[in-house]
Write a structure and sequence with these properties.
Largest sheet: 10 strands, mixed
CATH class of the largest domain: Mainly Beta
Number of strands: 27
Number of domains: 2
Shape: elongated
Structural class: alpha/beta
CATH superfamily of the largest domain: Hexapeptide repeat proteins
Amino acid sequence: MIHPTAVVSAKAQLDSSVEVGPYAVIEDHVRIAAGTKVWAHAYVTGYTEIGRDNQIHMGAVIGHFPQDLKFDGRTRSFLKMGDRNTFREYSTIHRGTEPESSTVIGNDNYLMGGAHVAHNCVVGSRVIICNYAVLGGYAHVADQVFISASVMIHQHVHVGRLVIFSGGAGVSRDVPPFMMACERNEIWSMNWVGMQRAGFSPETMREMKGVYKIFYRSGLNVTHALRKIEEENFKSPEVAEFVEFIKNSPNGVLPHRG
């Protein structure tokens, strides 16, 4: 299952079912679980732990040094990923920058060509990151987020569940769950299509519409908007998820367009 031109360190730990293509390089300390395929010319390095049934395509760079001027190449730091992820051509995922820290990737994610996940990011599951989108260091992306092409997510930004970004958007503040982020630091609407596809009930959709109107269209400030939402006594757990995200946002959340 390992092509004769591939370079695989004797210290790497690969399940016997792992397939390694021509001229791929797998260095010391890498651990790869069953069913994963490393395509031609891919490079996997560092203290990288890869789960089952992942696909690492041509030219992808997995677990290399972070792009951080403070990083010491002797530092032991990690990249940890789950199962059934796909990393397309020339995508890059860097490991943590501080000693013993980690970049973490969940399950069932799809990263398209040229996508970049920087050091110490945490990416949930079922996330799609399109071509040449970039996550800065320490960014947190929750489950089921869709990041369109050429999106720029600033370091330390938190993105809530089921957010969708328009192509070329840039954000330097947190994005609440179930929203559509566009242009430069703007919320345009809710992610209606994503919520419907996720199977949200009509009652949940109705309540989230009410929350959206209160928080983004009523003219109330954040404190008063949250108080108003709580007074409405909404029942859906998604409403509670939205409110908790706002309350715990370390950077403040994006404003509505206009």
